[in-house]
Amino acid sequence: MLEVKNLVKVYDNRVLALDDVSFSVQPGQFLAVIGLSGSGKSTLLRCINRLIEPTSGQIIFNGTDITAAPQEELRRIRRRIGMIFQHFNLVLRSSVLTNTLSGRLGYVNPAWSLLNRFPKEDMQRAKENLERVGIGAKAHVRADALSGGQQQRVGIARALMQNPEILLADEPVASLDPVLAHSIMNILKTLNREDNITVICSLHFLDLVQRYADRAIALNEGKVVFDGLPHEIDDERFREIYGRDAERIG
Amino acid sequence: MNDNKLTPRGNFIRTFLLVIVIVVVFAYGFQVTKINLEEPKEERRQTQLTNVIRALAHPDLTKYETERLAVNVPIMVPCPDTQFTLPDLSQPGPSVTLSAECAEPGSEITVTGTGFEQSDNALIFFVPYKADESDEVQLPLSDDVEIDEQGNFSHVVELKKDRTSENPQKIRVVVNRRSGFPMPSQTVYDTIEKIIETVFLALIATTFGTALSIPVSFLAARNLMIQVTNVFGSLVTVIAIAPIGWFLGSWLFGTIGGWGVNLIVGGEVPATAGLWAPALLLFSVQAMASRGSWAKQLTMLRSYSVGVLGALGVALAWGLVAGLGQVIGLGLANVLGPFAFLGNFLFVISDALAIFLPLVGGLAGLFALVSLAGVPTENMLLRTGETILSKAFVVLMSILAGGVLLGLPAALVTWLYQLSNPMTSIGWPAVIGGALMGILSLAVKVDRPMPTGMIAYYTTRTVLNVLRAIEPLIMAIVFVVWVGIGPFAGVMALMLHTIAALGKLYSEQVENIMLGPIEAVTATGANRLQTIVYAVIPQIVPPYIAFTIYRWDINVRMSTIIGFAGGGGIGFLLQQNLNLLKYRQASVQMIAIAIVVSSLDFISAKIRERII
Lengths: 250, 612
Hints:
- Chain A is of the alpha/beta class.
- Helices cover 34% and strands 24% of the residues of chain A.
- Chain B has five domains: 8-55, no CATH class; 64-182, Immunoglobulin-like, CATH 2.60.40; 185-216 and 469-612, MetI-like fold (Orthogonal Bundle); 238-384, no CATH class; 385-450, no CATH class.
- Chain B has helices at residues 8-32, 38-41, 43-57, 186-219, 222-225, 232-265, 272-288, 295-335, 340-384, 388-417, 422-443, 452-469, 472-483, 487-511, 515-523, 528-561, 570-579, 583-611, and strands at residues 62-75, 95-98, 108-114, 121-127, 139-140, 153-158, 169-184, 230-231, 449-450.
- Chain B has a four-stranded antiparallel beta sheet. A three-stranded antiparallel beta sheet of chain B has the order 2-3-6, with no helix packed on it. A two-stranded antiparallel sheet of chain B has the order 8-9.
- Chain B starts with 7 loop residues before the first helix and ends with a helix.
């Protein structure tokens, strides 16, 4: 369903972030992307929905080449791909409900959306999605009044509004405590199983990878150094991915 | 860490030298600023200061109704030889007696009064004999006479030397007695009127200034502008035809809108309108044609034609509305009595609409031609890249663009400095510009991305910085020359400075927004406008409001003194009173300013609490 072919990204200051990355993702998979900070995980995820423009290479989503798509088509592709972020990226001054509804912006009539008017079904769906992630009661609260874990749930609800086929998660739990991290990962796993949403999630901690992911890809300085099952990451592989001096925590 | 540690001795020497330098600098500064404590100690200065402070502490707030009371006492001047009887002029109330019933001219007599009020001010006059009482005059014999606590006074006056008569003349004591309650003085009324003018000055300047500075702030925001790029080929095309678009648009809108205005206001349409009818008819027919194999190529042309027709229709409607507004406004002003200002408001707005018509038309023409030529050119060049045909086209357009780029400033310089030969002073720069651009375009790829956004950014920033450096008081002087002395000049000056200051402050806020929410909203598939409304605007609204309130406070203060430069408002009145040394009146204005500024400060602090 998603094929990444020879993806290269060079930043303006000649930093090579992605070096000939290729892999493919099957529908319904829970794929973890691991690696050191700066190894290219965020860049890879952002290239998939072209928040960052790849320097070269192709990304084929359901047969369509994302990298070559013109602006209008890119919008249509993006609305099928949901994304959640390490720092939640909510609009803090807006209410939880408005933040959630902004997930529908790719689908609704632009004119009405500028006036903050959404169809009734969307309002209903938004409330349901908020219930589903466990914060239905906070619908009318301002986003900056929520805790980190709650904000991430709103981010997930926002992504759910898009009815996505793929959910990109850029270190979704890196800013949360271990208990919260597990609850968020649980939500993602549930969405993966129940709604058949493909999840591509970058993570720091291997215990999360081994608990939740079906498959793992490891990046080191922009190159893919591992592509296989989580339980195959033994100590030797671990050092290959994270470097000679790395030690496992937990 | 800086390992350059000085020894304690070195440290001491350095500090000592620094202190010496500072002392020298300040000593020189005192000299240059002529700080002198001898002058204020002089007695003359002290007296003046005391007077002024006392006057300021005694503002001219009240005035009392006064009643005039006159007490007449007859007297013979000179003393006649024969027996005489004086008429009885006594009345109820205070009475006055003289030390003698007659006296020689130029002699002194004592005037004694009883039954007066201590607060009365008495003046003594000599009233010469007149056969007709209505011809009587009063000749002053004294200044204010003091009346003691018992209501008595005794004053010596010198009789006039030249007023003699055989008939009885009069000594008259005139008293102006306060009656009734104190009323606000004329100064108070004038001050209130001017303060109202001042507050509205600040209000209008801030409102319009804020509204106009929002689009300006987007142009001055680096992070927004850096994303705007166009290819070289389309940029030169747009520059080359922009003037055509402007002049065509402003002429079309001006003419057709003018018909609308004249139709309503004057009731007639110029004969030339008739010439347009067949042309417009043909144009409309062509716009509607959609048959045949040409249909596809014509569709875009057709939609543009319809668009142009629509725009001309808008111009006509605009003119009609402007004319209608003027007529209705004037009519209302006549009918509404005290609310006439509403009618006048309508008239002024409609008049402004009519004046703005060519300007709007110019902008519309510019915009239309830019999108008609610019967007397809950009798309075409991005698709085809550099071919013989596209290169030739771009070179041609570059020559024209170069002509425009040097020709327009040359025209401005010619007008500014009244150069004698426009053909050369405009023609030559245009030719040179065209040649230079033509050569340049040979070297540059047709689809090279040009940072048009950054050009707009730097231009806007420079203009804003220049305008911000000029104090509104100085701007007011220029506007006074253009629109005349009065609050309108003040409004214009404050508005311009507000746009410059807020434009910069707002743009800094736009540059500081968090990119995260923008990323997130874009990732959902939102288009540019939706991203701005959902991710950018919620982040910038609180600081925008804070800055607007801040600017409002400043404008209120500035509006109180912009009258010093002719900008109307209470500053005008204050300056007049200060120049005339009427410190008691000036004190009233100062009090009014203090009250208004502090209460508006208070209100804006409350608003800020609520909203932010």
